[in-house]
Amino acid sequence: MTEMTARWRRGDVAIAVVACLLATSSSRAFGNAWEEEQGGCAVNYDDPAGTCRNERGEGKTAARAPGAGRSERKGLGQATAPGASRTAAVSCVTEPNVDYPGDAVNGDLDLQTNVASAAACCDLCKATKRCRFWTFSTPERGTQPYYCWLKNKRVRPHRRAGAAGLVSGFLTKGNLRIESEAAAAEASPTRTSPGAAATSKDAGDANVAANKEKMGKRRQKAKKMLEVAQKLYHAGKSGEAEPLLRKALKKDDMNGQVRMWLGFLLEQTGRWKDALSAYEAALAPGRIDFLSNNELAMVHNNLGLIYYKKQGRHDLAETQFRQSCDASEKAGMTAWTHSYKNLARLLEKDGRAREAMPFLDKVAQRTNNDALAFYSALLLPYVYQDAADIDEWRKQFKKNLAGLAKRDLVMNDPFLMEGVPQYYLSYHGRNDASINSAIARVFRMACQTCVFRAPHTLDHKPKAAGAKVRVGFVSYYFREHSVSKMSLGLFKALDQESFYTVLFQFGFKDKTTDRLAEHMSKFHHSETWTLAQAQQMIAAEELDVLVFAEIGMDPHAYALAFGRYAPIQIAMHGHAQTSGISSLDYYVSYEGFSEPQVCVVEVLLCPTPSLFAP
Description:
Elements: H1 2-10, H2 13-30, E1 35-38, E2 41-44, E3 51-53, E4 59-61, H3 70-73, H4 86-89, E5 91-96, E6 98-99, E7 110-112, H5 118-127, E8 133-137, E9 147-151, E10 160-161, E11 166-173, E12 176-177, H6 181-187, H7 194-234, H8 238-251, H9 256-268, H10 272-282, H11 293-310, H12 314-331, H13 338-349, H14 353-367, H15 370-377, H16 387-406, H17 433-446, E13 469-475, H18 482-493, E14 499-506, H19 511-517, E15 522-526, H20 531-539, E16 545-548, H21 555-560, E17 568-572, E18 586-588, E19 603-605
Parallel strand pairs: 13-14, 13-16, 14-15, 16-17, 17-18, 18-19
Antiparallel strand pairs: 1-2, 2-3, 3-4, 5-11, 6-10, 7-9, 8-9, 8-11, 11-12
């Protein structure tokens, strides 16, 4: 360019023009910096600073769009300058209340949760390689709030209008939608004759019809595979069902039912992370349309349990349980109780007892479970604001208890009760002897099957000289628990020459259970005992003494304590409060730990603390 400028100054115009054209052609051919005349200024578009230099070499900033380059000269819209980010040159077009069904990035659904807004969903798409479309679920949708699905292509229909609460969008670069190379070429200005346009339209309609027919056949095949997989699943052949479900997904990726059943199978085989992905995918826009309200109730409930139990995400779990409840109501599932019970447990754990009560009541009504109604009416929170709050709750507690006393309650199997609701009374720091006695009277009237008597206690005779005293111990917590730590020292201290000892344990057992059982003459364990089975099991041992390691923490021990299984029955201080149950003769504690006799219905015994040391 130096030689060209010199000749220009000498007035050799012709030579300068030819040299300029040759220089420009050479630059285009070899991909070097190429120039464009703008008002007598040569603009170097590959200069990062965007500098415009005139004939004298003086520089000034060029007026151009950021990132403009070779593509602009060819009329293909703005292109990103070398080194510029993808997001700087790309923008979003949004469509409220529209759903974009379709395959997602990398051939599977790329789901992002807890996305703040549709704009944030768009930004995620911009930052994700191969993402062209996105759909965002707003809180107004009522399900899956703040979910963002990223997609790289769509299936027919390309868009579903009227999808309330959804916002969808696509990426654009300049004036072109970034959809595919074919779509970009289609958007380029071309001239087509009327006859050719008509032929193209007919061909397009034929392709659409053919694709629709092909998709219909694929969906029928997927449906048949699902039916076979369901039969295998129910027959316990999960290993055969899983590959069949995955084949069905390859036939019809949008079938939410297939993903739901895959989630069931994965969860059953302990792969909860994969199950989580399957359930979330089943609820994605487009796929969720395959699910009935009954199925929605199950998927939302199972998803909530994973959030709750596996991830500890109570907020997400609560949303899923509530959506499950709503779906069950829409489906008229009058026998459905799972999500109501799970939601009540979650709310109770979060200290929201008042909110939990209505859901427990609904479960009690639907199952005709008076044991659950008893539990719900006497539910107490974990934490209180102040002493006045405690007084208010105790007042309501007594009122509810009086209401229960007037009802004709029937508890055939109190083991179905969620827990012992009066457990948290012991944290109030008050004398609860009278209130626990009142609870026991109501419970005894409702649970007539609890009032049991072992035959040998009707005519109990003194032990023969040298005969071992038969002692039984009962608890749900004979496992890794403080009750076991309290009991181990006592078990070790018992003289096996003088005592025949029997351990009765409910629920799951562990290494601590085995350690306790080593010091026993006999061990009974079950996770599925009914009240009647447990009563017969204990009675068959013809015990002289029966010891409850705790009363008031677990419904199994509480219900059994209303029976008479031995001439002498004792409650220990596993739960540091009187049971209020008249069939218990003694309450064993120790000095410095026990409350005075006035707070205990049973006869208070206080042996030395060293007896209980492990």
